[in-house]
Design goal:
The protein is α/β, with parallel strands linked by helices and about 450 residues long. About 35% of the residues lie in helices and about 15% in strands. The chain has a domain of about 300 residues. The chain is built from 17 helices and 15 strands. The strands form five sheets. Strands 2-1-15 form a three-stranded mixed beta sheet. It is globular.
C-alpha cells in the first residue's frame, strides 16, 4: 500500500474574502489583492517537489466559482450575467461567499480509510459536508461528483454521500483525521471533534468549533472501522480559540510518528498513553509546549500544517511552509523534531504564501489516499502526477488564470465565463468526464 497526496488545484477565483471566523490568516488578509496564477503555480511546484521526493502525488480539480447554481438557489434569476450583476448589486457578501476558491484545501474534501482497515476490504471515502461555513458547504455536491468519477470502481472503492447537512453532523473532512500505524499493529484512526450536538462538553469561547463528535462517530461506522482501532479525541478549546479551527493546525501524524502542540487535544498526555499501548514501542511522538512554541506562533507559521512524508528509504521528511522557517520558535521546534529520536530526518520549506495568506498550509492543500497497486490501476482518470501532466497543467493555468484579482473583480460576469471555459478544458486534460453542473 502506498500513500498518494491528492493536491487541490487552486481555482481561478482565488481571493481573500475573509469568510472564515476563527481562521486568523483569512481574517488578517481580507480585501487584499490576490494572485490566482501565482497561487496555482505555487501549488503545482509543491506537487513537483513532493513527487521528486519519491512520494505518490495526484491532483483534484477546483470547483466552478462563482457558483451560479448556489446563487440561483438563493433567488437570483436570469442569465448567468444577470445573476452575477444582481447579486453584486443586492447582496455582495453572497457573491463573495459563492466565489470562494476554498476547495483548493482538499484536506477538507473528504475523510478516507484504506482497504487494509475496512471490514469489506475497500477504500472508503466520504466527502465532507462542511456545514459550518456556507462558502464551504456548497462544495460537497461537486466533491462527491469528482470523487465518484475518479474512484469509480465499486469493486475497489466505496464513495459515500456526505453526512446529512444538519449541524448535528458537521464534518470537516481529513483536516480532523489522523491515521497512525506501526509494523505488526492495526492502523489507529484519530477522528477529532470540537463540539458535541448532544453531550454537554466545554467548548471554545472565542471562535466556533466546527466538527461534531457525532459526525466523527458516523464516519467510523460508514467506513466499517474496527471500534478498537478508532479514537475520538476532543480538540482543545484553548487551541480552537487560538486559531486552530481544524486539528491539522496543531497536530500532524504519519504512520508511526505524531507531532503535536499541547493545545491540540484535551488531555494530550492521556491520548499519547493510549496510542503507545495500541501501537507499541515503535510509535514516536514529539510535543511542543506552549512555552516552547506559543500557540499564536504555531497558528501564524503553521509548522503542524506540514506534510510528514515517508520516503522510499523508509525515513520521513517534513514539508513545511516558508513561514515556519521565518518564525524562530517554529523553526527551532522543527529542528528539535529532526534532532531527536524520530523517523524524521529532514525539513524542507516551500513557498505557498498565496494559500497561507488565506489560512492554508501544505497539509491543507492535500488529501491523503492509501492505495494498493491494484486499486491504483483501477483509477482511469489522468490525475496522477507526471512531469508531462505538470507541464500541461502549468500551461493551462497560464492560459486561463488572471495575474491579479481584486475584490471588485468578483463582480465581473466575464470571470465566471473564464472559469467555466478553463474547467471544461481541465476535465478533458484529467479525463474526468462531466463532473460540473454547467457541463450537464
Amino acid at each position: 500500500m502506498r500513500e498518494y497526496n491528492f493536491d487541490g488545484l487552486v481555482g481561478p477565483t482565488h481571493n481573500y474574502g475573509g469568510l472564515s471566523p476563527g481562521n486568523l490568516a483569512s481574517q488578517s488578509h481580507v480585501g487584499e489583492p490576490s494572485h490566482p496564477r501565482d497561487a496555482a503555480l505555487q501549488g503545482l511546484e509543491k506537487m513537483r517537489f513532493v513527487s521528486a521526493l519519491g512520494v505518490g502525488q495526484a491532483v483534484l480539480p477546483p470547483q466552478p466559482r462563482p457558483s451560479l447554481h448556489a446563487l440561483r438557489a438563493l433567488g437570483f434569476t436570469g442569465s448567468d450575467e444577470e445573476v452575477i450583476t444582481r447579486a453584486a448589486r443586492e447582496a455582495e457578501h453572497l457573491l463573495r461567499l459563492t466565489s470562494s476558491a476554498s476547495s483548493m484545501w482538499t484536506a477538507n474534501a473528504a475523510t478516507v480509510a484504506p482497504s487494509t482497515d475496512t471490514a469489506d476490504g475497500r477504500v472508503h471515502l466520504t466527502p465532507a459536508n462542511l456545514s459550518q461555513m456556507y462558502h464551504r458547504a456548497i462544495e460537497a455536491e461537486t466533491t462527491h461528483s469528482v470523487l465518484r468519477a475518479i474512484f469509480s470502481s465499486e469493486k475497489h472503492f466505496a464513495v459515500h454521500a456526505p453526512l446529512p447537512g444538519s449541524g448535528h453532523f458537521a464534518d470537516e473532512g481529513a483536516a480532523n483525521h489522523t491515521r497512525l500505524a506501526t509494523p505488526g499493529h492495526a492502523g489507529v484512526h484519530l477522528l477529532a471533534w470540537g463540539r458535541s450536538a448532544w453531550q454537554d462538553v466545554q467548548g471554545p469561547s472565542r471562535f466556533p468549533a466546527r466538527q461534531t463528535l457525532e459526525a466523527s462517530q458516523a464516519l467510523a461506522r460508514l467506513h466499517q472501522l474496527d471500534a478498537k482501532s478508532v479514537l475520538f479525541p476532543q480538540q482543545h478549546p484553548e487551541g480552537i480559540d487560538a486559531g486552530a479551527f481544524h486539528t491539522d493546525v496543531l497536530a500532524v501524524g504519519n504512520e508511526r510518528f505524531l507531532m503535536l502542540h499541547e493545545l491540540a487535544f484535551v488531555d494530550h498526555a492521556g491520548l499519547l498513553a493510549v496510542l503507545r499501548e495500541k501501537l507499541g514501542q515503535d510509535f514516536r511522538a514529539v510535543v511542543a509546549t506552549n512555552a516552547e512554541l506559543p500557540a499564536k506562533d504555531a497558528v501564524k507559521a503553521y509548522p503542524f500544517n506540514s506534510q510528514v512524508l515517508t520516503l522510499p528509504d523508509g525515513t520521513m521528511a517534513i514539508v513545511a511552509p516558508i513561514e515556519s522557517r521565518e518564525t524562530p520558535a517554529a523553526r527551532q521546534f522543527l529542528e528539535r523534531v529532526v534532532a531527536e529520536d524520530t523517523p524524521v530526518k529532514a525539513v524542507h520549506y516551500l513557498d505557498v504564501r498565496q494559500s497561507m495568506n488565506n489560512g492554508g498550509g501544505p497539509a491543507c492543500l492535500r488529501q491523503r489516499v492509501w492505495l494498493t497497486d491494484e486499486e491504483r490501476g483501477a483509477i482511469k482518470a489522468d490525475v496522477f502526477y507526471t512531469p508531462a501532466l505538470h507541464d500541461s497543467l502549468a500551461g493551462w493555468v497560464r492560459r486561463h488564470y488572471r495575474e491579479v484579482l481584486r475584490p471588485k473583480d468578483l463582480q465581473d460576469p466575464q470571470l465566471a465565463r473564464e472559469t467555466m471555459t478553463a474547467l471544461d478544458e481541465l476535465t478533458r486534460i484529467l479525463n474526468l468526464g462531466s463532473v460540473y453542473d454547467f457541463q450537464r
